[in-house]
Amino acid sequence: MSEREVLELLRENARYSTADIARMTDLEEDEVEAAIEELEATGVVCGYQAVVDWDKLEDERVRAEVELNVRLDRETGYDDISQRLARFPQVKALRLVSGDYDFDMEVEGDSIREVSQFISEKVAPVPEITQTVTHYVMTSYKENGIELGDGEDDERLSFSP
Amino acid sequence: MTFELSDRVQTVPPSGIRRFFEIAEERDDVISLGVGEPDFATPWAARDAAITSLEQGKTSYTANRGRRDLREAIADYVADRFDLGYDPDEEIIVTAGASEAVDLAFRAFVDPGDTVAIAQPSYISYEPGVIFAGGEVLPVSTDEEDDFRLTVEGLEEAGADEADMLVLCYPNNPTGAIMPAEDLEPIAEFAREHDLMVLSDEIYAELTYDGEHTSIATFEGMRERTIVFNGFSKAHAMTGLRLGYALGPADAIAAMNKIHQYTMLSAPTTAQYAALEALDSCESDVREMVSQYDRRRQFVLSRFREIGMDVFEAKGAFYCFPEVPEGFTAEEFAEEVLREQGVAVVPGDVFGAGGDGHLRISYATGLEDLREALARIEAFVDDHA
Ligand SMILES: Cc1ncc(COP(=O)(O)O)c(C=O)c1O
């Protein structure tokens, strides 16, 4: 069960040191290290990334949520289509979803032009794709469970009973 | 004109932490481990319910004892969580914080000259509360060697068998001590044997990190002599909303309500809506906060051990209570670590008998700040080794 506990802490903050994780749990530091190794080896943890508030940066980052409708045939299934799409580095996330459309795809680029071109030239022509609807992200309020913005000051008194 | 202060007011000394506020003001990089309230905001669903109630104009007084639906929700909650059975109509009163409930109890049950035994170190409001009610305080100290649990020997030593009332608070502020069932049992027996009324402040009940909280009111023959206090400040992070409650036998709650109806009328209405929602839908928020506190608790205990300061294994509330290193009184340590390192802690003496030589460390603070504060304490201890 130690892996579960370590995973929870890494999901909270992947930069916690192994020493701090050990202090926060009943585990020894080498047990924490072993748990992390196991999580990585089995592919449960497949990467670590920063959560970014792009509005705080000068350079533009264009992101779009794209709805994709597809038509399957005897030779082609969802997995085949998803593989074709997922290999493009512009595609940051790709999920099969229930509802009005089939895939939910996140695309990122340096400009609207770049993202539009990618969708019209690389995505739309895929024969099984019958429709794309692109939503450009205008503002992000929360990413990966973290509220973006300036946060609130701690207004508590420094001493209270 | 000059006001002639009443003897009762004059008897109570000024707050022991006032001075520290002023020192803290002088620096702008202070990290405070002196805060006795959650660093989390009230769960959003509860705040949202409060806002909605305001939008709907629900801003009138409520029934003196609090909204009936809230009392029912409290009855269900304490039954479910702590095995406490109280009738929402007669045995529950909703108050402006547990603070008000505690004050009501002192005023309802203490006569001038009555002796009130208080298990200490303890929350600082009980003693003044007893004095304002005209009673005499009998401190009963608890010790580190007993993990700051109250013992029958301690009660006997203090002469509590002669007292009229006993006040306890577990999980404890400031020590973080808890009282498991097997330790409470003999205390219950002592109270029955010596006919003591018991006031049990269980406001930190949810913040129990080892086993389940047990209320003294659940022991045989205790319900009829006990008032239990609880509230939304700690577990539901609602300090500023000011909402608590008391549970007790019908005639006792009626007596408390007699004072409450003239002095408070009813607890804050907006807060009652928030509280109702908190009980209705915020259990997972509470669980999440408790698990955060527990991690911080283990982090802080580990760090004190690494620093070489003795600290007993606190298992409740959001405090731990390390010993100050040799060469310092608690007061000196607290003052100097604040001046030199900008870390605010509260000296244990403030909390009464048995608190000297210790510091109350609150871990109701984010991990980043805890890490930095502990590093500064470590530097301070090294500098003065
Ligand atoms: C033990 C104890 N009881 C009661 C209170 C006051 O609670 P409330 O905000 O409900 O008045 C506190 C607050 O610090 C406390 O620590």
Automatic annotation (TrEMBL), chain A:
It holds the Pfam family AsnC_trans_reg. The keyword Heme does not apply. GO terms for cellular component: cytosol. GO terms for molecular function: sequence-specific DNA binding. PROSITE patterns: HTH_ASNC_2 (PS50956). It comes from the Archaea. One of its GO terms (biological process) is response to amino acid. Residues 1-79 form the HTH asnC-type domain. This is AsnC family transcriptional regulator. It comes from Haloterrigena salina JCM 13891. The lineage of its organism: Archaea, Methanobacteriati, Methanobacteriota, Stenosarchaea group, Halobacteria.
Automatic annotation (TrEMBL), chain B:
GO terms for molecular function: pyridoxal phosphate binding; transaminase activity. Belongs to the class-I pyridoxal-phosphate-dependent aminotransferase family. Coiled coil: none annotated. The lineage of its organism: Archaea, Methanobacteriati, Methanobacteriota, Stenosarchaea group, Halobacteria. GO terms for biological process: amino acid metabolic process. SUPFAM superfamilies: PLP-dependent transferases. InterPro entries: Aminotransferase_I/II_large, AspAT/PAT-like, NHTrfase_class1_PyrdxlP-BS, PyrdxlP-dep_Trfase, PyrdxlP-dep_Trfase_major, PyrdxlP-dep_Trfase_small. Its cofactor is pyridoxal 5'-phosphate. Residues 29-377 form the Aminotransferase class I/classII large domain. Its EC number is 2.6.1.-. Pfam families: Aminotran_1_2 (PF00155). Keywords: Aminotransferase, Pyridoxal phosphate, Transferase. This is Aminotransferase. Homodimer.
